[in-house]
Sequence to fold (702 residues):
Amino acid sequence: MTCTRFGRWLVAAVLTLIAAGLWQQSSADSPVQPPPTQLPGHNALLMGTDWYPEQWPEERWEIDLQMMEDAHLNVARIAEFAWSTMEPAQGNYKFDWLERAIRQAEKHHIAIVLGTPTAAPPAWLTQRYPDTLRVESNGRPVAHGNRAHGSVTSLTYREFCHQIAEQMAKRFGKDPNVVGWQIDNEYGYGMMSYDSDTRQMFQQWLKTKYKTLDALNQHWTTSYWSQTYDNWEEIPIPVGENNPGLMMDWQRFTTYAWTSYQQNQIDAMRPHAAPQQFITGNFMGYGFDPIDHFVITKPLTFVAWDDYVGTGHLDPDTNGISHDAMRGLKRENIWVIETQPGFVNWASVNNSLDKGEVRAMAWHDVGHGADEVSYWQWRSALNGQEEIHGALVGPDGKPEPLLPEVAQTAKEFADLQGVFRDTRVVSDVALLQDYESRWAINWQKHTEKYDQFAILKSYYHALRAISQSIDIVSPDVSLDQYKLVVAPDLNVIPQERAQHLEDYVKNGGHLVLGPRSGLKDQFNGLIPIRQPGYLAEALGGQVEQYYALEKTIPASGSLGTGEVSVWAEFLKTTPPDAEVLLRYGKSNGWLDEQPAIVTRKYGRGRITYIGGVLSDGLVGAAAQWMTKSSGISPAFGRVPDGIEVCRRIGPRGAVYVLINFGGEKRSVTLPHAMQSLLEQREVSQVELPQYGVAVLADTKAN
Ligand code: GLA
Fold:
C-alpha cells in the first residue's frame, strides 16, 4: 500500500469509526475504555424504577409503562422477589408473563434488569425442604413470611437457586431488552445460618486454610484460656465474643459463603447470558460491613448500590463517602439501583426529602460516579410489609407529587447524556478503607466512643473541601495515581501490605496513617513491633502507648492549637529527620508534652503518623498541611460553603456538577467561562437556590 493510499484508507477507517460511534478522542490521561456501567446503545446516564408487574393485573401494565415513558424513565428492574410467580410449584417454571412484561417495556423503550429472586424463596420450597431455611444463632430456624430466610450455606438451597437462575438465563439470556442481571437482593444483609452443616463447612474451610491444627493454634494463640483445639470438629461458630483470630476467620468465611453463593448463580447464568448482559448485585453503601465487599464484588461486571437517607436529609459527606467507597470497590463507575422516592418506611422517622432534594440527590449520585439512578419503587403493593413506603405512583394508580420532579431529572439525564459519555471521577487524594481493620477495631473498641465512621468522615470532609474529589479504595491496590493517601485507622497491616505502602512512599507518595494503625496482623493478632509495626522504621518513630481518653486534651504545634478526644497515642522518634508537628498538652501525665503527630521524608515521598482523634479544627489544619505539602489543588476552585463540587473527566474534557446543599441561595464564580448545560449557555457565574444544580462543561480542562 502506498503512503497516499494508506492515508486515504486511514481517513476512511476513522470516518467509519466515527459513524459507528466507536471513535473517541483520547489524550494521555483520558480513559479510553467506556465504563462498564454505560451500556452500548443506551444513554450514558439512565434513570429507572423498580417495578413489580407480578403484583398487578396485566391490563394495568400498559398504563404504568406509558407513565414511565412519559416520565423519561428508561430502565426497570423487575422479578427480584417473584419466585412464587415464576416457579409456583417445584420445577413448574412460568416465564410467559415475564416475557410479556419485557416485550411491553421494550415498546416503551424501557430496558430491563432482571433480578434473581433468591432473597425470597417460596413457601413450597422452605416447607418441603426445611434445611433451606436459615438457622439463627439461638438454634431456631427462621419462620417463613419475611425475606432473606434462605440459608446461604445450604447445598439444597443453592441447588434451587442455581436452577431458577439458570432457567431465567436460558429464557432471557439473549433477550435484546434485558440489559443485565442483579443477583439476589442486598445479599441477605450478610446473615449466616448457624446450623451444623455450616459449622462443618467452616471447619473444612479452616482446614484448607491452615492445613494443620498446630498452625491454627499458633496463629490464634489458643494456649490463652485453654482454647487449644485437638480436633477440627471442636471449633465453634463464634456467637458473641470469642478468640479474635477465630472471629476474623468466621467473618472471612462469611465473605466466602456469600461470594460462593453468588458464584453459584453466576455459573448458572453466564453460559446462557449474552456477554453484553452485565451481572451485578445491589450493595448497601459504606456502612454495611459484614461482608468484605472488595472480595465479593470482584466477579461482578460493576457495583450497584441502594442509596437511602432514612431519617433527615441528605448529608453530602455521608452520601459522598458511600458513593466513593462503592466506586472504589472496583475503581469504576457505579449504578444507584435503588434510591429513596421521598421517604422510606423503615427509619426512626420516615420524613420526606424536601421538594427539590430528590433531584439534588440524583445529581449528587451522578457527580460521584453513578451512571444510573433508579427509584424504589414505582408503586407500592396493596399489601405486604412495605405498604406505606414512598413510591412514584400512589395506590390509586395516579402520580405521587414527587413524580414530576423525578421526570424533570430523568429528562435532564437524557438531554445531557452526550457530555457524560465515557466520563469518570479522577482524584489526587485517596482514603483507605479495609473491612478487616474495621472488624478488628469494632470487636475491641477499647472505648465505646471510638467511632470509625466519624473519624473517616472528619478527614473526608476536610480533604474534600480542599481537593473537591476523593477516592476511597483498598490499601492493597496500586496507589501510584494518588499524590496523597490517608488511612484514618488501618489497624491490620501485615508485612506484605506494609511493603506495598512503603513502596508507595518510596516512589514519591505521601502516606498519612491515623491512630490504631499497624497494630494487628492478618490473624487479628498483635504484631510484635510497636505501631505502626512494619512501617515504624520508615516512619522513624513508633507509638509508645495508646490511651482511651476520658476527656478531651489540648494539643499544639506547628499545625496550630486544638484538642484531641476519645483516643491518643504518644510517639517516640528516633532519626533526627523525623519531625514532630503536634504535641499533647496537659493530660494524664503520660501524654503530657509528648509527640502526637510525626512526619518524615522517606525515599521520594513522605510518611506521617497522627496518633490522636483530632478536633475538627486540627483535622482542617492537618488537611491544609497535607494537601499543600503534596501539591494538591482544588479540582474546580473556591466555592461558597454548602456548595458541593463534583467532577467527572472524559475524552472531551471535564464536566462539573455543582449542587447547593446550603440552606440559602448561593452565587458561584467560575474559574473561567464554561458551558452551562442545563441552561444551554456560556456562563462565568451561576446562581444556585437551595438544592439548585449546575452542570458545567469545561473543555479547557484537558
Ligand atoms: C431495600 C430493598 C428493597 C426495599 C427497600 C425499601 O433497599 O432492597 O427491596 O425493601 O429497601 O427501602
